[in-house]
Amino acid sequence: MHRMPAGPKLALLSLVALLVAALPSVWAAVPVAVGVPVVLYLGAGMGATAGLRELARQGWALRWVIVITAVGQLIFLGPEAAAANTARVVAALLVVGLLPLTTRVSAMLDAMERGMTPLRRVGVDPVRAALLLTVTLTTIPVLARLASEIQDAQRARGLRPSLGRSALPFLIVALRHADDLGDALAARGIR
């Protein structure tokens, strides 16, 4: 998958994520949803150990998504739907998360621009739309890293990291990152 061109890789991973998200809300969907990212990360060209390590790292980064999704689903839908829906959401996120790990940003941007060219007829600027999507995809890992750094800083100060203690510092660094990103785009003439 690492050597695959960006356009087909984007289409394939998007299709796989949609298929995983479309799985039924039954117990049998859980192992399928869990298995798909495992197979994709093993075949991503990083090597088996590195692929599984990266999958574990990505899964750990989604721990709050897992908790919030599972708890909400348990309260309203019961255990079977909660397990299946949580597995589907997390699997789809893990599958899509493979794209920025195996594709250069410039290749992603070019592929998205080419793919959105037909939308020009309806008034969509493919260059801007591709840039927006690329910035979004590349910002997610940055925000995950910032959240991890905040928790590490809290541990270094002898505090146990918690969502309540991390929310305000995370908001501040996320807004600072957005500001820096906006300044960088403006410096390049992108409005």
TrEMBL record:
UniProt keyword terms in alphabetical order: Membrane, Signal, Transmembrane, Transmembrane helix
Signal peptide: 1-28
Major subcellular location class: membrane
Subcellular location field: Membrane
Pfam families xref list: CbiQ
UniProt keyword Acetylation present: no
Domain of life according to the entry: Bacteria
Bilayer-spanning residue ranges: 60-77, 89-109, 129-147
Membrane topology term: Multi-pass membrane protein
Name of the protein: Biotin transport system permease protein
Source organism per UniProt: Microbacterium trichothecenolyticum (Aureobacterium trichothecenolyticum)
Lineage: Bacteria, Bacillati, Actinomycetota, Actinomycetes, Micrococcales
